[in-house]
Design a protein that fits this description.
The protein has 223 residues and is mainly α. It is built from seven helices and no strands. It has a single domain, classed as Methane Monooxygenase Hydroxylase, Chain G, domain 1 (Up-down Bundle).
């Protein structure tokens, strides 16, 4: 468990708070993802203010940056690796919120309800992505490298399924240009959410220099 090895037995309060804030950002982004994809794929009305929720996520990112700057100014020798990794993870967590807003915007381009086999396939993929928010949070807070690697493996599986769906949409002559555009945009953005969650998990599963690599990445052998 590389992350646990990198941390002291009792990490600094500011670093520990930063880790908790990442999870709070993910919880809010997950709620945004629920609302946006319900609009895009279940043809449900959008009943929440995604802009306000996104500002909450953005405020979390700013808070972590302030906490890390304060911590490193006072104790730069403590928790340095995880402090640097937190700067990476908050960027990915923040992007999940942005993508949720973009999914809702894509739904707003539609001139008809999202129906048919491609929409159903995408709903199933959406349902596979949603629990990954919680799994990522659990891996980060526990420092469980095995759980983090499972998040990364799930993303790899989803990438293949998303690519297959995009190919099917591209070659379906029965789709209107509008439907194909909305489904393609939504597919790509749901896939990007999964990739950002995998990036966060990689901070737990992989050595520092390999963060944001895929699950096949391995530490270089010792000389």
């Amino acid at each position: 468990m590389w992350l646990l090895d990198a941390l002291r037995p009792t990490p600094s309060p500011l670093v520990a708070q930063g880790t908790r804030t990442v999870c709070e950002m993910l919880r809010t982004s997950g709620e945004m993802f629920d609302a946006a994809t319900a609009t895009a794929l279940d043809n449900a009305p959008l009943t929440v203010d995604l802009g306000a929720m996104d500002e909450t996520v953005n405020a979390g990112e700013r808070e972590v940056r302030r906490h890390l700057l304060e911590h490193l100014a006072v104790s730069p020798q403590d928790d340095l690796s995880w402090s640097l990794l937190l700067l990476t993870t908050i960027q990915d967590a923040e992007r999940c919120g942005d993508l949720a807003k973009s999914i809702a915007k894509a739904a707003g381009l539609a001139d008809a309800p999202r129906e048919g086999p491609h929409a159903e396939t995408l709903r199933q993929l959406r349902d596979r992505v949603r629990p990954v928010f919680a799994h990522t949070c659990e891996a980060v807070t526990s420092g469980d490298a095995d759980a983090a690697r499972q998040v990364m493996l799930t993303n790899d599986e989803l990438k293949g399924a998303m690519a297959d769906l995009l190919g099917a949409i591209a070659h379906d002559g029965a789709l209107t240009p509008n439907a194909a555009t909305v489904l393609t945009l939504t597919t790509r953005m749901i896939g990007r959410v999964a990739s950002h969650l995998s990036n966060i998990a990689s901070a737990v599963a992989l050595p520092f220099d390999l963060v944001r690599s895929g699950p096949e990445a391995q530490a270089a052998p010792s000389a």
